[in-house]
Amino acid sequence: MRALALLLDVHVNKVTTRLRVLHSVLEVPERLDSPVRLLHLSFRDYLVDPENRETVELWVDEKLTHRNLVKHCLRVMRGVLRENICGLSFPGMRRSAVGVTQLEEHMPSQLQYACMYWVHHQMKGDPEHNDGDEVHDFLMTHFLHWLEALSLLGRARECLDSLKSMANWLVGRRDSSLSKFVADAIRFLQANFSVVTEAPLQIYSSALIFAPSKSIVRKTFENVIPRWISTLPKVQENWDACLLTLEGHSSPVDSVVFSNDSMKLASASYDKTIWIWNAETGDCERVLEGHSDWVRSVVFSHDSKKVVSASNDKMVRIWNAETGTSKDVILLGRFCRCSFFLRPMSVGIVTDHGCICFDWRLKVIPQNSLCHYSLSGVPSVASHDGTWVTTAGTDLLWLPPECRDGRVAVAGSTIAVGCRSGKVVLLGFSAVDIADIAQS
């Protein structure tokens, strides 16, 4: 309750007095440092129901309340956020070395709430109410501090999600300066996600000095680059099309594929493993091990919950994409070229002898499973010699030698390229511009 009072900028006695009469619908703790909880979720719906506006004394204007909470959250963050808020002893100190007590001492509950939920309240407020200037001013002053705080809390992913939500919310609005800042902030965080989550203070050094020279975030905060970095590295001027480079495989990548919801990416390699990546952050979520030879092909099921892999060990494996466990192992008996899902329970495997189609639940391949299935519906995104990414027969992007002889996958306007080095490179494009090129 104390945190609630500090968030709302009212005396704690006022909060306790108000809550005292609501014990039937709220769990009101004895201790001031404990949270207040709803006993009945329907009570919230009752309070904000527009039909109760004239009849219920406690009726709450939901959009107005969200707007007020944004203002309170910004006030709290402005008052507390600063560089190195937890007093870490050196720039490379790992987040894992920061204890819970240290976090609670320097980041009280009201600050943690404000950092995690102010964007949510901003999205839920009245879209016609223009408070973009206040948000822009906050980000121009405290973006790195906010990012550091969420990183320390282990919530850097929520920061990225919040920025993307804000970018969508800003579409069609007049806040061009805010839109540009948010778009640049997304690229800044994506490019540095791994180091931000591991060593938060690197936000002010490594992340800034390696950002493009014309990056809005870099130009806004270049004055905080540490003095002990006497010579800055030469960097490109602007962000390029490369969104992420995923590193982990020890041998060339032979297959890459997006899940149907475009949230995950799977890569299969000569190193006998399949890696499952978060397509937004570049985090490796799972490493699937079990094949005894290089993996030729990998594909997600229609619901993105299963992964099928086919290897030169002549085995097909069905994996649980969430846990990384191998659900079923099926003896193929032939070398595989590629795999695909025909229907939720049916798998197709292209081999040297033709296409085999079977129900993976049977765990064996029927004798008469050889079939003819057209792959014309699968988009061709690489030229026959592997040197170009193509669309509708038009050469779109030349691939350097290290990115050839692998595989290319497409999800919306994002292209994944598997490289000889074992890296997977994610490239972002404008879907509208690509369509114009294909039609020209």
UniProtKB/TrEMBL annotation:
<keyword id="KW-0677">Repeat</keyword>
<dbReference type="InterPro" id="IPR036322">
    <property type="entry name" value="WD40_repeat_dom_sf"/>
</dbReference>
<dbReference type="GO" id="GO:1990234">
    <property type="term" value="C:transferase complex"/>
</dbReference>
<dbReference type="InterPro" id="IPR015943">
    <property type="entry name" value="WD40/YVTN_repeat-like_dom_sf"/>
</dbReference>
<keyword id="KW-0853">WD repeat</keyword>
<protein>
    <recommendedName>
        <fullName>Mitochondrial division protein 1</fullName>
    </recommendedName>
</protein>
<feature type="repeat" description="WD">
    <location>
        <begin position="246"/>
        <end position="287"/>
    </location>
</feature>
<comment type="function">
    <text>Involved in mitochondrial fission. Acts as an adapter protein required to form mitochondrial fission complexes. Formation of these complexes is required to promote constriction and fission of the mitochondrial compartment at a late step in mitochondrial division.</text>
</comment>
<keyword id="KW-0175">Coiled coil</keyword>
<feature type="repeat" description="WD">
    <location>
        <begin position="288"/>
        <end position="329"/>
    </location>
</feature>
<dbReference type="GO" id="GO:0005634">
    <property type="term" value="C:nucleus"/>
</dbReference>
<dbReference type="InterPro" id="IPR001680">
    <property type="entry name" value="WD40_rpt"/>
</dbReference>
<dbReference type="Pfam" id="PF00400">
    <property type="entry name" value="WD40"/>
</dbReference>
<dbReference type="InterPro" id="IPR019775">
    <property type="entry name" value="WD40_repeat_CS"/>
</dbReference>
<comment type="similarity">
    <text>Belongs to the WD repeat MDV1/CAF4 family.</text>
</comment>
